[in-house]
Amino acid sequence: MRRVVRGFWGPRSEPVEAVADRWLRTLDGIAGLVPQAADVWSQVHGNGPATAFTADRDALLGALRTAQSATDWSDLTGTGLRLVGTGAPGWQAEVSGLAGGAPEFLLQSLAITLHAPEEAVVPEEALLALLARVWEPDFGDVSDDDVLDALEDDADYSVGDPVVGRAGYLSPARAALVPDDLETVREPLPGGGELLSIAAPGDSATVVRVYGRLREAGALAPLPRPMDRAVL
After folding, report:
1. pLDDT tens per residue across span 37-65
2. Is 49 helix (H, G, I), strand (E, B) or coil?
3. Phi, psi (5° rounding) for residue 118?
4. Rounded distance between C-alpha atoms, residue 149 and residue 157, angstroms
5. What angle do CA 146, 170, 26 make, to 5 degrees?
6. Alpha-carbon distance 90 to 86, whole Å?
7. Do 122 and 71 share a structural domain?
8. Do the beta carbons of residue 60 and residue 24 sit within 8 Å?
9. Where does residue 48 rank: exposed (0-12), middle (13-18), buried (19+ CB within 10 A)?
10. Which domain of life is it from (predicted)?
11. Phi, psi of 17, rounded to the nearest 5 degrees
């Protein structure tokens, strides 16, 4: 089964060393939560084949600096990196991100895509909490193809809109707008944001309903464009 854990935020200029540290904390966290997902990492490039990758700070810093040396790179856009990990049979992890920039219209992001056997227990909410702690996003979600299809078909969701899935993360200002009677489990996280436990796998109808309530309450309002801050 394929599931995606994602976080999004607005402009946040950071030196490459800070971005590399966030990447390292992410990979170390994945190794702790789902060690079977990625024994060996490789880096995916825009051109040419993937290359072997060592998941340590020096390699991350080198990869990010190489990306910044490209002729079309801009510090306004941010620095992209995409890594794929292979592990036990049936397991694979992909981590891709665009971070450290100050774009006016394109959100910065970090996404963890996990492929796991159907019967496997995956700590989805723990991975979203990890992402929230490390990257301090504006919002985040745990989704799969069925959830995203249901949101697009039944809730007028468009790619790029703030969103929640089977689980969601909301930054402090967004969490403050969550209706008191919303039928979800709410877990405060360090920094003031909240992790929302919304639905079990396969229950896309509940995700659509909760998404609608949150959007009506303003908790999923988009950042103003042009963007001038990382979170609502």
Report:
1. 998 999 999 888 989 999 999 999 999 99
2. coil
3. -55, -40
4. 9
5. 80
6. 9
7. yes
8. yes
9. exposed
10. Bacteria
11. -65, -40
- Would you state the structure tokens that stand for residue 50, as one six-digit string? 């993937």
Gap between the Cα atoms of 131 and 5, Å rounded:
8
Instruction: Give the predicted TM-score (pTM) of the model.
Output: 0.94
Of residues 72, 15, 27, the one with CA closest to residue 53: 27
Indicate if 163 and 113 belong to the same structural domain.
no
Total domains present in the chain = 2
Question: 159-205: per-residue pLDDT in tens?
Answer: 889 999 999 999 999 999 999 999 899 999 988 999 999 999 889 99
Strands (E), 171-217: 185-188, 194-197
Which of 101, 136, 171 is the last residue in one of the domains?
A: 136
Phi and psi of 90, rounded to 5°? 90, -5
Q: What domain range is 213 assigned to?
A: 142-231
101 and 187, same domain (yes or no): no
Q: How far is CA 81 from CA 12, 24, 155, 159, in A?
A: 17, 12, 31, 21
